[in-house]
Amino acid sequence: MTLFVNEPDWSATLEQAKAGYYKLILIVGPTGSGKSTVLKETSDYNFTHLNFGKAFSRELSTKPAHLRAAEAEEVAIDLVDATDAARIAIDNTEVLFESPIRLNPLALLKSLSTRRLIVATWNGSFDASHLYYGIKGHPAYEEFKYTEEDTFIIVATNNLV
Fold it and tell me: What is the pTM of this model?
């Protein structure tokens, strides 16, 4: 079952995440709500920080334009694997949602978190069964359904809980 947290006690929250099948914590909030600031709180817990937007864009730009969308997921996985870290803090994930890439970021992050503890930012909002990217009406707006079997943690910014 997904756990919702407003102000994490990081020691307890990380222990809970480590016990789940998906070792995933998503810091969810709109643009400017303090997601990156909350993510930086994990620096005291031996996390490798990854500015995903910057690294992903740099790696993808080396690929031929017509292959970028097809190779995007592999590039994302390789970036995370290249850190060779057991704990990764991933910031600036918005690039995963934008055209023409449009991966399923929730499925990707869940998959990556079966082998390591991941804390990642998510630009949007959530409710009891969905994560939302962006603002309704925006061209990149998307809904991602999750179920009771999904064992990840959502940390809200801006009092979203």
Answer: 0.92
